[in-house]
Structures are given as C-alpha cells and as structure tokens.
Amino acid sequence: MDNLSIMNFQVYLPLTSFKSLSVMAGLAPEGSQFDARQFDAKMTELLGTEQQEFFTSYDEVHESFDAMGLQENLLRGIYAYGFEKPSAIQQRGIVPFCKGLDSVIQQAQSGTGKATAFLL
Ligand SMILES: Nc1ncnc2c1ncn2[C@@H]1O[C@H](COP(=O)(O)OP(=O)(O)OP(=O)(O)O)[C@@H](O)[C@H]1O
User: Fold this and answer.
1) 77 versus 11: which is more confidently predicted?
2) CB-hemisphere CA count at 13 Å for 8?
3) Residue 88 to residues 8, 20, 24, 52, 64: CA-CA distances in angstroms?
4) pTM over 0.80
C-alpha cells in the first residue's frame, strides 16, 4: 500500500468550525480548570469578525521541495539533511502551512513524514 492510498486528505477548517468546539465545551469534566463560558465568549468574539475565506480541500501537490517556494536557507537545510523528495503528505501539507491557513489537519500512517512537515 503506498502513502497515497492510506492518506486521509487534509481539511482546512474555517473559524466557524469552532462552533462545534463550543458545544464540546459543555463536556468539560467536573473539577476541570476549563471555563466553558470564557471559551464561548472568545469564540463569539472570533466569529464576529470577517472570517469568510476557507477551504474544505486543497488540491495543490508539490512534487519537489524546490517547487514549494521555500526560503533558500530552509531549502539548503532540507537537502543538507539528506531529504531529496517530499513524501506524499509533505507534497500536500507544507505549502498550506507556509501560506498561513487557519488550520491544517493531516492524517497518515506512522513514519510518512507528518512531524517533519510540521517542523518545516
Ligand atoms: N522527505 C523525506 N525524505 C527522507 N526522509 C524523510 C522525509 N521526511 C521524513 N523523513 C524521515 O522519515 C522518518 C519519519 O518521519 P516523521 O517522524 O516526520 O513521520 P511521522 O509521520 O510524523 O511519524 P509518526 O506518526 O510515527 O510520528 C524520520 O526519520 C524522518 O527524518
């Protein structure tokens, strides 16, 4: 099985997805330091701002580190470390991170380069 067939594709969440987290806030266990009212107030404040733009999927695939438009010194570090080609999840996840999207969620089998993508 290759990396692609086991990958659950990344989803980019808009801030509006915090609505569901706000519902979860009511589930904080007794004695928890978590203050659901403060959380709800913060989310209401965030949701009141203009945060309309979001993606539910992301189609761009960068098959080489060169094609990702990374900073020169980062690129040199990657090659100096011995990485020649990004893994499947890296081909899809590094650039959206760099673009500063609100949330990037990726899921893939152990050892496929998730932590490395996050660190880059
Ligand atoms: N593009 C690449 N080329 C070569 N080696 C790589 C590349 N990306 C990651 N690696 C190496 O593969 C190994 C696994 O990478 P990493 O820890 O990022 O995977 P992971 O998906 O986060 O694993 P886990 O789910 O077990 O934490 C590490 O030794 C890492 O240095």
Assistant:
1) 77
2) 9
3) 11, 30, 33, 29, 10
4) no
Token output for 46: 């965030």
Dig out the tokens for 30 from the structure: 């007794």
* Strands (E) located in 1-120: 8-11, 105-107
ipTM of the complex: 0.97
* Cα 87 to averaged position of ligand 1 atoms, centre (Å): 8
CA distances from 116 to 20, 42, 55, 93, 120 (A): 29, 32, 23, 10, 6
Query: Which residue CA neighbors atom 31 of ligand 1 most closely?
Result: 116
- Name the percent of the chain lying above pLDDT 90: 29
Query: Phi and psi at residue 104, in whole multiples of 5°?
Result: -125, 120
How confident is the model over 6-33, as pLDDT tens digits? 444 444 444 444 444 433 444 555 665 6
Q: Name the residue at shortest CA distance from atom 5 of ligand 1.
A: 83
